[in-house]
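Lecture notes, structural biology module. Today: joint structure prediction for complexes of two components.
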Amino acid sequence: DVKVTQSSRYLVKRTGEKVFLECVQDMDHENMFWYRQDPGLGLRLIYFSYDVKMKEKGDIPEGYSVSREKKERFSLILESASTNQTSMYLCASRNVREQYFGPGTRLTVT
Amino acid sequence: SQQGEEDPQALSIQEGENATMNCSYKTSINNLQWYRQNSGRGLVHLILIRSNEREKHSGRLRVTLDTSKKSSSLLITASRAADTASYFCATDEYGNKLVFGAGTILRVKS
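The predicted structure, tokenised, for the full assembly:
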């Protein structure tokens, strides 16, 4: 059974903190993605990676960075968390056909 | 940028009725996919329809694609309370990434 896991389901951080969201997939996929999901806005792509150490900006990369040191792991980093980054964060990996999503991390920045 | 736009934003029906959701998009696509999201969870792939296909079935799901109108519809027949979820269309624009719409919230009342 294919699996994408995310390090936390719920996370509460303070403004200005550095936040790491981890994502691991066990399907040997090359492509991995980070989205944020907000009510009424659907899924918005933050960053994606199509190979180890490769990354591409998505639609809303400001305030975020990513790291892909190993094929199975794709990390999203909030360098200095702000309240407008309170959201649901979804990680995904894909093969040629479909994307597989993790369960999501609900991040609250206070 | 948001490619798929779902319509309606929300839909409430009785168990046993059919549910139809529509998706419009703007550019040429390789394929169009539908995903389902249960409350507070990650998305799950439902069905993929290629640009050269007009209709596809999977169990109680029927998807149509009209590339001339740049639109797709998802029909769920004989709905059940367990179908209550958000449904998203996503377009594959010949690249590595999918572009998701804002989704339709479906509520099936028992």
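Point to remember: The interface with chain A takes residues 1-2, 33, 35, 40-45, 48, 88, 90, 96-103 of chain B (CB under 8 Å).
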